[in-house]
Amino acid sequence: MRTDYYNWLPLTVPDIFRIFSNISVKWCIAGGWALDLYLGRQSRVHEDIDVIIFREDQFTAFEYLSKDWLLYKAHKGNLSLWKEGERLTATKDIWVSKDATSPWAFQIMIVDTEEEAWVYGRETSIRRPVKDICSTTHEGVPYLKPEIQLLYKGSSSEIRTKDLNDLLLLLPSLSPQAIEWLRSSLNIQFPSGHEWIKHIDQLTS
């Protein structure tokens, strides 16, 4: 078990692209880097880098990555080794490093699907066709669509300043359809209201 949660030396986007392009899984970059790939520029410093895969692809990803990396499953604040053959039914986050003491290199976010639809784990009534959750840069790097990434950021137990800044930076560049999807999804998850709705309403009023 490891507890060095802040011991990060993240890979670059090209590094991730080289690794995951060799794995027969659907994947895309998530987190703050996904937003910057959408913008076409780096907007701020990123302490880590996140990659999404689908739960049904977990063994394929493990088989390839475990040749060169150690994979740790995150559960209730603890990080323990993901063992060969172990099926992850609820775990959503995997932290990856070269060995037991080296810095964290990247994080894998496992997402669920049902009948060709991505299922939002924090409110399972929010769904979207799997084929419609990622976009691709001109260089071919897949990334999570910004409205979905912003939903994840807005649904954290504590919304950080950088997440609000990401919202304010991205909103003017989003399509009306993306903005409406984000507003609707926040309203579904937070029927009593969400602080980001006022920013969305100010932009669209």
How is this structure best described in words?
Helix 4 (146-154) runs antiparallel to helix 5 and helix 4 packs parallel to helix 6 (176-189). The strands form two sheets. Strands 1, 2, 3, 4, 5, 6, 7 and 8 form an eight-stranded mixed β-sheet that branches. The chain has a two-stranded antiparallel sheet with strand order 9-10. It has helices at residues 13-20, 31-39, 58-65, 146-154, 161-170, 176-189, 196-204; strands at 27-30, 50-54, 70-75, 78-81, 93-97, 104-114, 117-119, 127-129, 134-136, 142-144. It has seven helices and ten strands. It has two domains: 1-144, Beta Polymerase, domain 2; 146-205. Strand 9 (134-136) and strand 10 (142-144) form a beta hairpin. It is α+β, with helices and mostly antiparallel strands. The model has no long low-confidence stretch (mean pLDDT 96). The radius of gyration is 17 Å and the shape is globular.
Number of domains: 2
Terminal CA distance: 50 Å
Helical run tally: 7
Q: Estimate percent helicity.
A: 25-40%
Radius of gyration, whole Å: 17 Å
Largest sheet data: 8 strands, mixed
CATH architecture of the largest domain: 2-Layer Sandwich
Structural category is: alpha+beta
Order of helices and strands: HEHEHEEEEEEEEHHHH
Provide the CATH topology of the largest domain. Answer: Beta Polymerase, domain 2
Q: Give the amount of beta strand, in percent.
A: 15-25%
What is the mean predicted local confidence, pLDDT? 96
Give the class-level CATH name of the largest domain.
Alpha Beta
Oligomer: single chain
Globally, the shape reads globular
Question: Could you name the ranges where pLDDT drops below 50 across 5 or more consecutive residues?
Answer: none
Q: How many E-type strands? A: 10
Organism: Paenibacillus eucommiae
Pfam family, one: Aminoglyc_resit
Protein name: Aminoglycoside-2''-adenylyltransferase
InterPro entries: Aminoglyc_AdlTrfase, NT_sf
